[in-house]
Design a protein that fits this description.
It comes from Bradyrhizobium macuxiense. Pfam families: Biotin_carb_N. InterPro entries: BC-like_N. The protein has four helices and two strands, in the order αβαβαα. It is mainly alpha-helical and 60 residues long. It has a single domain, classed as 3-Layer(aba) Sandwich (Rossmann fold). It has a two-stranded parallel sheet. The protein starts with a helix and ends with a helix.
């Protein structure tokens, strides 16, 4: 799974990993592997369609 490889790569570099995932995906392997996870207010595919939200989450 591509997401797992990305998370492992981020952690190998010593960086903090954060996953943005829909509430229905909170138990997905890539989410469990990250240091932190953020769930948008909506669930399902709509949680991934707001391109602005990752920027807003990062600036908190």
């Amino acid at each position: 799974m591509r997401a797992l490889r990305i998370v492992r790569g981020v952690q190998d570099m010593g960086a903090h990993s954060v996953a943005k995932s829909a509430r229905d995906d909170e138990h997905a392997p890539h989410v469990a592997l990250t240091d932190d996870a953020v769930a948008p207010a909506v669930s399902g595919p709509a949680a991934y369609l707001n391109a602005r939200e990752p920027i807003d989450i990062d600036s908190r």
